[in-house]
Amino acid sequence: MASRTTIEIDKPKRWDAPFGEEMTPTAVDELLKLAPFSEMDPDKFPCHCSLRDLLLHDTRLREFQPGDLIVREGDYGHSAFLIVTGEVRVVLERLPPETLGRSASTGKKSFWSLCRDWLTPVTWPEMRAESERKVAPAHAAKPIFLQDVPGLLNKHQTLQLRSGEIFGELAALGRTPRTATVLAETVTLVLEIRWQGLRDLMNYDAALKAHLDGLYRQNSLESHLRETPFFDQVPLEQLRQLADRVEFVSFGKFEWFRDYQLNMKSMAETERLAKEPVILAEGAYAEGLYLIRSGFVRVTHRFGESERTTSYLHKGQFYGLAEMVMNWHASRQIGWLNTLRAVGYVDLIRIPTPLVEEFILPTMGANDLGRLIAEAEQQLDRNQANVASPVKQNSENESESGWLEFLVDQRFVNGTETMLIDMNRCTRCDDCVRACSDAHGNNPRFRRSGPQYDQFMIAHACMHCIDPVCMIGCPTGAIHRDTALGTVLINDQSCIGCSTCANSCPYDNIQMVEIRNHRGDIVRDREQQQPVMKATKCDLCHDYKTGPACERACPHEALVRLSTATPEQLSHWTTRHAG
Q1: CATH of 25-96+108-218, one of 3.40.50.10490, 2.40.160.20, 2.60.120.10, 3.60.40.10
Q2: pLDDT tens for residues 172-203?
């Protein structure tokens, strides 16, 4: 075999791909005259991440005409917006998809493109053309124009925002979908701040962090309450009174994955459980209704001398209504029926019991009240039986409870597209691995290995998490969510190979690889003479109309991609295969 040489390039850096090419030092001078930037102390920012550099490289100015869509509900957000001039409207109600201009196209490869890929042999893994090794700048998409804006504003409940106000920070910092649609009401100039820059501005300026924390709570609250079951019958005026009096609480750390990787991952189950912050304890006074705004909650109850996991909750769900109804409507008074613990970081809304009894319970129908009372009584009877005779109860629910313990302990409740393999059906033929390799240039994007419970393995493949913590530290935004599909992807052109995402992933599902040119030469950094690395991971074959190649290739239906965040979906598949 002929010897290969290496080639040299300059290693990509964070700001090789500025957020907006049109941003100039003169524009930054004007921004520094505006609040909140005029109130910041430049000396608080380090030299490598100065306030001027953040504004120059992590922001861009965008102008919108009346009716232009700025933020679309349901899209995954990676930036926040500061209104420089003009006015915008936040539509607080869900709009039809066609009104929002959503496209049916998902950017899938055509049949002829697939044929070309299949017929073009790939000699070396991770080859890049010269143009693909250059970091490409980010470009703003052309705004979508909404027809009949006056009619839309008259028909739906809206909120007006003016110059100096900020919106979109909730989705930008929380890696979550946008919760409302925002459109320009007048000619509007906004400063768009990508979330990496927003994070650094908050880290180095306490005033901005406090301001954004307030916006985070204020802007998301009313829509959250409106979408919660049993709140739909509460009159709007009373709902607003309720919103003014609720409390915001959080448990755990936002960057929970670091402690989990360094310490908790290697602990025994009982040790991990003890490390999870207790939100409320079984048997204590039921002092309020809890709505989960972000994160995951483990639900347990006493089982003899220990505890058993019975379920887990995530964003959009709530806990405590059964206890509230029981104590309000029935003569039998009870405490909390379960213990709730924070799995990682959890942000909650707490509605004190007097507010629940004043605003919510009187609006509920008799059927709902009766059902909740019956559920509370059944749960109370089960809890008493578990404490009195745990051995008898163990045989009835051991399998289901064991699955729940496994999923929560390993943090797999985070996954929306988890790769699950039935090892009783798997023949180790590796057709799935070869199919992945063929679809990704001779380099498979997953490993057919991983933690196992009974006959089922959770393979090392990106789960496209509800809370993708891999995105927290990416300095360029290369790792991101597809705005239409929610798939977590890596932009190869803006990836600088810093390994932050790979080190952050709690599941070891991102790999760093050396890249080559078409001759197989390893590409090296000209300055440090080290191979240029890029992050790779499963992308769910997002550009293939037929879906993930691994799943299609399995000849024994041993492999599936499903949501481990949805117990019903998981239970259906495992029960069918266990039988």
Answers
A1: 2.60.120.10
A2: 876 677 878 899 999 999 999 988 888 889 88
